[in-house]
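Dear colleague,

Thank you for sharing your sequence with our group. We've completed the structure prediction you requested, and as agreed, I am returning the results in plain text so they can be pasted directly into your records. Please verify that the sequence below matches your submission; if there's any discrepancy, let me know and we will rerun it promptly.
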Amino acid sequence: MVQWPMLSQTRSRMTPQELVDALKRHERHLRHQAGGVRADLRNEVMAGLRLPGVNLARATLSGADFSNCVLTRADFSEADLFGAIFDEADLSGANFERADLRGARFRNAQLTGARMTGADLRAGTVVTTGRDTASDLTGARLDNSTLDHAKLVQATLARASLTGASLRHAAMTQVDLRGADLTGACLESAMMKGADLGGAILNRADLTRTNLAGARLNGALLADVDLSAANLHNAHVTLGTAKLPLELQVVLRDHVIWSDTGGAAGRRAALGGIDLAGAELEGAFLSGADLREGNLARANLSGATLVLADLTGANLAGANLHNADLSGANLTRANLRGAKLDHAIAKQAKLQGGKGARHVAANFTEADLRDVLLGTVDLSAANLERSRRD
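Please find the predicted structure tokens below.
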């Protein structure tokens, strides 16, 4: 883990004249003119200032606060911006090429058309506290920006907009892109091992030679995306959803966001009564989803996550639920005739059948059925070989 230099815990604020003088001396420094001095504005509070086109290339700006500033077309190339704050700032067209932005914050900042080639946005460790701080671009607008070869390891770009952005060869291991919009973005040869793209929009994105090993793509929209040249080893991706109607793909995406944010954003999937017969939903994330009375006959739900899902009265005849997680799911009155539940996890699930005994002829080979509520359900016709029960 990279460490930050020792930063002061106090903030200062120059007078307007002092700031103007510092910027003038810095300009002379960049031009190698007499009287030039490199700007040292570390920990300086400049929140709310209008500085369009300001040239702070190679300046020392660690810990500086530029919140709500207007910095359109500003030049921060090769600047030291350790832990700098740019929340809500307008940085349209700004230049951050090769800048040191470790631990910097850009929450809801406007960065449309910004140039960040080679910028370092990795996490850092504040020496005074020992606390790791990831660069935070939550909700930032980076449409049509350039981040080729940028270092974004463990950075947070949740709900950021990166439509048309260029991220060729970017280092993005374990980056947080949940709910981000990457429509038409170029991620050619990007390193995205372990990245979280839950609910992200990747329509028309270029994923040529992108390394997505171990990445999470639950609920991601993948329309017109060629994944044939991407590394998807151990990635959590539901390729079959790309064949579903767009409105249904959006429902699944919003559901992932709803789950990730604890209901603060997105929307719970309400798919009660929907016909999903034969749908390819391998590995789909449907925890807590409303699937009551839905038709999932012959659907492929192998490896799907259906924790606490409501499948009351659902038709799962012939469905493939191999290795699915149905922990706590409500399967009351569900039709499981011929369903494959081998290696499934169904701890504390409800299989109650209502009035009268109901025979379930399903394959539960090596399934985990501990604490399952059976009620009047008769499993005598089911394959329970090596299943785990009370």
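Summary note from our side: The CA atoms of residues 352 and 375 lie 5 Å apart.

Kind regards,
the structure core
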